[in-house]
Amino acid sequence: MEIRPTTDQDLKVFVDTLHAAFGRFPETPTDGGGVWWSALETDRNLIAVTADGRPVGTASSYSFELTLPGEVLAPAAGVSAVGVLPSHRRQGVLSAMMRHQLAELRARGEFLSVLLASEALIYRRFGYGPATYTQRLTVQRHRASFARPRARGTADAPATGSIELLRRAECGEILEEVYDRYRRAQPGALSRPHRWWASGAGQPPISPAPRYVAVHRAADGVPDGYASYSLGESETLTVDEVIATDDAVFTALARFALEHDLATQVVFKHFPPDHPLCWQLADLRAGQVSNNMDWLWVRLLDVPRALTARGWFTDGELVLDVDDQFLGEHGRYLLTVRDSKADCVPTDREPDLSLDVSDLGSVYLGGTAPSTLVRAGHIKAHRPGAAALADALFRADRSPHCLHWF
């Protein structure tokens, strides 16, 4: 078997092979784009072929920026389009592609890799750990009244500004600009490169699928938030995503959706797990949470570089014993945080925590507490207080959340 990069001439073979791996057929492109593979970066695609030239597997990655705690923007490879034909599964094809890809990403100088896992059992063995989470919130409109607004300046106070209703085709530049401002301040968020918006590659509101967009404008007229939505035949108003630069704008957009005529219920597809909206409703039980699941998985390709890249909010010192079984690597590192900056160097000191690189990926953005993984038996704490110190060190300035599908 050979694993090689693709060329422009390989695109159809690559797309057909990936769809066959999932038992599907490629959808028909719409006018002006709208298919996810229009955002593929040819030089980052890999295809596995047998000795007689038959394609049996695919893997790809995108060039993204990932927002780390402390509003740090770091390059990250977004792994996607991974598939192996049913006829060649459990024969080492996937492991070979993942090992080849990780080596290639390191050769590019990248120190972080992220993905969305189609199955939760697959990617931990390759060193990835779930790092952000999302959920669905459903609110029945007859129970959606808000509590009386409090003093201005609190999250549930009325936002100043206005909301303008537009069609998706009318506001592409606005969506792109507002999302970019949002993702730069939100830990766990990924960039959406211009080529994604231009080609309509992805899920709404990136794709050209018909959507209404409620655009929130600040008092000076500058757009600072939006909600993309559609109203289905079942009288369910489905909100693809709410993007807002602060809580008051988010509340204004949520209120707009919840007060929409002709809808019996409103579904927020990607709702941040710790968002205060339910507390802003008069009926605390009005919002029903479902589909609570992992979203962005993170893998560290260079532990010292990754740990020194993010922002930190508590001073302290930890010795981390990190095992990378998939790549056959092991390292012990002294992490020292002073004045929001970290230093991470190899050490022979006794460890405070022993963990797999996948568990380090889970705690990296601050969305999973190290003590939770200690209690689950994933991380071993070697001294009292080590888990509590790790919780304090790895916490983020705000909970990480990722909306981008890739």
Show the helix and strand layout:
Elements: E1 2-5, H1 11-21, E2 46-49, E3 55-68, E4 72-84, H2 93-107, E5 112-116, E6 129-130, E7 133-140, E8 162-167, H3 172-185, H4 194-199, E9 212-217, E10 223-231, E11 236-244, H5 247-258, E12 265-271, H6 277-280, E13 287-294, E14 296-300, H7 303-309, E15 316-324, E16 329-338, E17 341-346, E18 353-356, H8 357-363, H9 370-375, E19 380-381, H10 386-394
Parallel strand pairs: 4-5, 11-12, 15-18
Antiparallel strand pairs: 1-2, 2-3, 3-4, 5-14, 6-14, 7-12, 7-13, 8-9, 9-10, 10-11, 15-16, 16-17, 18-19
Describe this structure in words.
The protein is of the alpha+beta class and 406 residues long. The protein folds into three domains: 2-110, Aminopeptidase; 134-292, Gcn5-related N-acetyltransferase (GNAT) (Aminopeptidase), CATH 3.40.630.30; 303-394, SCP2 sterol-binding domain (Nonspecific Lipid-transfer Protein, Chain A). Helices cover 22% and strands 32% of the residues. It has helices at 11-21, 93-107, 172-185, 194-199, 247-258, 277-280, 303-309, 357-363, 370-375, 386-394; strands at residues 2-5, 46-49, 55-68, 72-84, 112-116, 129-130, 133-140, 162-167, 212-217, 223-231, 236-244, 265-271, 287-294, 296-300, 316-324, 329-338, 341-346, 353-356, 380-381. The strands form three sheets. Strands 1-2-3-4-5-14-6 form a seven-stranded mixed β-sheet. The chain has a seven-stranded mixed β-sheet with strand order 8-9-10-11-12-7-13, sandwiched between helices. The longest helix is centred in the first third of the chain and has 15 residues, at 93-107. The protein is globular and about 60 Å long. The two termini are 27 Å apart. The mean pLDDT is 95.
